[in-house]
């Protein structure tokens, strides 16, 4: 049996007024809220990728979302742009795009999708943490 140990060291930086500096984690910056997504959709200022299964996607989806199941995401993001467009019917995302948003049912798979995208160089990609559950809840109000 192998035991792994890791320590996390933190520090606080104080401003001249004595207050701790705000800390932004990379993941908090990468989250899109319902309100933000709702505002982006009419302007077509979002590339929205649904990483749920095709069956889940067919059962209900956010308008203008493109279904790329999580298991196919990495290979899909590596496709040449023309092949991506032929396969998914939309232009391929570029690594520098800041309007890429992933979503799933509840936020778990989209967080994994975000990690994959960031690893592949899509550093400005984000995810809708509330997922389709949150979307449906707001849309039924």
Automatic annotation (TrEMBL):
Pfam families: Rhodanese. Signal peptide: none annotated. PROSITE patterns: RHODANESE_3. Residues 42-140 form the Rhodanese domain. PANTHER family: THIOSULFATE SULFURTRANSFERASE RDL2, MITOCHONDRIAL-RELATED, THIOSULFATE SULFURTRANSFERASE_RHODANESE-LIKE DOMAIN-CONTAINING PROTEIN 1-RELATED. This is Thiosulfate:glutathione sulfurtransferase-like. The lineage of its organism: Eukaryota, Metazoa, Chordata, Craniata, Vertebrata.
